[in-house]
Please model this.
Amino acid sequence: MTAVLAKTRTPDAPPVERGEASWRKRDRWWGLVFVSPQLIGMCGFVLLPFAVGLVLAFAQWDGLTQLTWVGFANFQAELADPVFLRSIINTLVLALITVPVGLALSLLIAVALDKLRGRTGYLLLYFAPVMTSSIAISLVWQQILRADGPLNQAFSKVFGIPGPDWLGDPHFVLAAVSIVTIWSSLGLNVIIFLAGLQGINPHVLEAARVDGAGAFRTMMAIRLPLLSPVVFFSTVVAVISSFQTFDVVFVLTKNGGPDNSARTIVYQIYDEGFRHFQFGMASAASIILLVLTLVVTAVQLGLQRRFVHYES
Amino acid sequence: MNSNTFSRRNFFAGALGVGALLATTACGQSGGAAGSSAKITWSTWGTPEEGQRFKKFNAQFKTDHPTITATLQMVPSYSDYHSKLLTQLTSGTAPDVFYVGDDYIGKFVSSGVLMDLTPVVDGADAKVKLADFNPALFGAGKTDKGLFALPNDCNPDVFWFDKKALAAAGITENPADLAAAGIWTIETFLGMCAKLAAKGLHGAMFWNYWSTHWSWVAANGGQVFDAAGKFVLPEDPKSVAAIKSLADGFTSKSFTVADTLPDGSGADSLFVSHKAGFYVQGRYGIATAQQSGSKDDYDIAPWPTVSGKPGSSGVAASYLVINAKTKAADAAKTFVGDFLSAKGQTLRLADGGNAVPSVKGADSVVLDGNYPAHAKSFLDMTSAGFEDFAVEAKVPGLSSDVSTAMLGMYQGKTSPADTITAVSKLMQKAV
Model:
């Protein structure tokens, strides 16, 4: 085939090149037209806000009057603000709970579903919360987690003592947010893990079985190492996602929970921007969140070399 | 080129044509008042029931002014309302006329985004005059630069009491009668709350906001801000003692923070099921009492004072303002004049409405129907009351931050001294 093409092009190469160049040029324009909606959206909703946020981080602006440049004062004020520091701790704790627990549960479910017949129905059930509005999910959970809600009623029936005030007691609010976050994101990770498990070469598993490896040994020595790139991907995404937790906290708690016990960084950004009209402070907080996310992601990428196994 | 082919040039020409048409149409729909008709938008927060009242007003307004069409943009939640408004103002899409809460009005006024409303209340043909308004309600809306906000209506925090619950706790005195006799003292009130708590009932339920903290300080003869706007509470022994007694009320379980009650058994539910003696709220308490099915069990009294004589307490208000960038200024002024006139307020607040009028001539909406029995207290307390202090209202979120600090004390997590220090810091930071 290649030879045929070469043969047809060789005698009058210059005209073909001109035609190809012209076609490519036209194609490039059409390519730009096709990607332009995405590009315009990206510029309008990501790049431009990012640039404005970066500028505002060094200014004082209430959205109504002219802005004033303040240098690094917003960053200094944020880092000295105990409420903001509390929001950083809450965000980190939330990530430390939701990421490992959520991923472990997803992996267990994916392994259970891997060889199960009729797993599509289960997958639909697990994936339904991912497709549902997080606001709707939070509103439903708000009713479930009420002090006199169905969860506590069941709790008191089983244990004979009243259940905790999930949304009113500062010791339990972050746990409540974690439960809702894990539950609502479970389905996506199950799908990803299941796809990863089914992508494992069956010959490798067969060889392990022939060598006498049991189910547990196969899981630990074969499937988990081969699944590690997928686990790594899910971990990075889950950490970034947990750093951006807002909607669940916004709906589930009043003003970030009692004693700011569930106030996350993004909630703090919203609070400073849209309740206190301090867009400079809010922008500084969002830059700090960006740096935090970059650092944590860089650490994860560094650890990848040690723990992630890529099949050659 | 084939005549059926849609070329790129044709496409762009067509797109430009459609764009120009749309732009022309949009210009024609904007609220310019130069022609014979004008369109204005106005926004507020509120419940669906309040929305019905506003729609009723809109219909009446259209009848009175056939050339002006007023369209309501309603936001259900107060907590989301001002952030939405800010976004609209920043992007130049704010309504022509809008409500502003008393904890945000100072900021909007000082930012210069509002029109001076002096022409609305000035002149022989003004529907409502400046002198008609209760002067206590202007708050941060009136400055030395002009009159930028007018109170829509107001809600003095009154002590709703449940005669049945009081009787169950062995209390035979009627707080409203004691107030009328000038012997409604804080000591008597605290004694009643202690008796209610001893019977396993809630003594008094308060909402955690500026009116609760500062009304209690005022009732105890204290001072929160001085005339220059300085936060003087920490230096005033009476105020410090008042904050301590307020904290004691909550920690001893005589008082309850209504905001922290679980949804299923909130303050309204407790009050209608006769499990609380007092519930401090505005005229909207009528709806709560009606829910009980035995509304005559409930009546109102003013805040108790040290001497027992009537004092001054907080009056929550909302304000109506005009966007400085409105393109339909005349229509907007007409709307504001009608909305705030005695006729407009009567239309909005009659038949068990949820607030007290802010102008003279509409008192009948409070007194008609003789409910509650001492309904006149609403008017007396409004006249003698005070609005959220301008210093606090000037800084968005400050009032809420102060309440968050106070909540720690009400829940017994922080001492009164530490709370006063924390509130002082918030005030200093804000200034």
Remarks:
- Residues 64 and 338 of chain B are 9 Å apart (CA to CA).
- Residues 1-6, 11-34 of chain B have pLDDT under 50 and may be disordered.
- Chain B has two domains: 37-155+316-367, 158-313+395-430.
